[in-house]
Design brief:
Elements: H1 2-47, H2 54-66, H3 73-81, H4 101-123, H5 133-141, E1 151-159, E2 165-173, H6 184-193, H7 200-207, H8 220-232, H9 234-250
Helix pairs in contact: 2-4, 4-5, 4-9, 5-7, 5-9, 7-9, 8-9
Length: 254
């Protein structure tokens, strides 16, 4: 009986040592994977830096959209050519308020969405078929089509820290240009009028990409529509988050 007891204790010690070595080996693999992932993320983030090259940005923008093979996409690109989409700023005085800012912002939102999708799908694999990459490309790259031809170069005034005022070159917004149909809904209407085939999910994601910022004051109908859109497809939340990530972080400056 004593021999059997000692043997059992030895087996327990050996098993514990084997488990300990296996655990350490697994931890090392986890650490190595995390380091590899961190390096890859750092490379991806660096790749998101604005190129300040309209030609390169435009080529990439068009290549991604054409790769979706969506009916009507070539017509959309032809129509964008008639506007100032490729040279317009992303805003009048906030994020990327510079020439070519709208094009850069569109690509930034796309890049943010693809990074977020990868991480979301790793955690929630059931969402993968609900976030198709072609829909992400269309909804992100074309979400701000409505901003075409509304920004005009202007001489503006700003107050300095000294209290003095100075003139500077900037942009004003002319909502009388074209049809004043709002923001996200205007993008959807423009794309449909140009003949682009959009899914319901893509229309909802583009329409509500501003989330609650685009809600008319005291409008319960719009609030409930926004909530319903989020429940209908996760693409709405993905585009909203990507737009905020791009404008708030990728394009952040003091």
């Amino acid at each position: 009986m004593v021999a059997i007891t000692v043997l059992t204790l030895k087996d327990m010690v050996v098993s514990r040592n084997l488990f300990s070595r296996h655990k350490k080996s697994s931890e090392r693999r986890v650490v190595a994977n995390l380091v590899q992932y961190e390096n890859r993320c750092r490379s991806e983030i660096l790749a998101l830096q604005p190129t300040n090259n309209e030609s390169m940005n435009r080529n990439r923008f068009e290549e991604i959209l054409l790769s979706t093979h969506r009916n009507g996409m070539e017509k959309v690109l032809n129509e964008l050519e008639k506007t100032d989409f490729y040279s317009a700023p992303a805003s009048s005085r906030f994020h990327l308020a510079c020439e070519g800012g709208l094009l850069q912002h569109s690509l930034n939102v796309y890049d943010a969405a693809m990074i977020l999708r990868e991480q979301v799908v790793l955690r929630e694999q059931n969402l993968e078929p609900l976030l198709p990459t072609d829909s992400i490309a269309i909804a992100t790259l074309l979400h701000d089509t409505c901003k075409s031809d509304i920004y005009k170069k202007a001489t503006l005034s700003r107050r300095l820290a000294s209290g003095l005022w100075e003139k500077y070159s900037g942009y004003s917004v002319d909502y009388d240009e074209g049809l004043p149909l709002g923001h996200g809904e205007k993008s959807v209407i423009m794309l449909l009028s140009w003949g682009l085939e959009l899914t319901q999910e893509e229309m909802l994601a583009i329409r509500w990409h501003m989330s609650a910022w685009d809600l008319p004051l005291q409008s319960p109908e719009h609030k409930e529509s926004l909530n319903a859109a989020k429940k209908k497809t996760p693409l709405v939340s993905l585009v909203q988050l990507s737009d905020g990530l791009a404008s708030g972080l990728f394009e952040w400056k003091r």
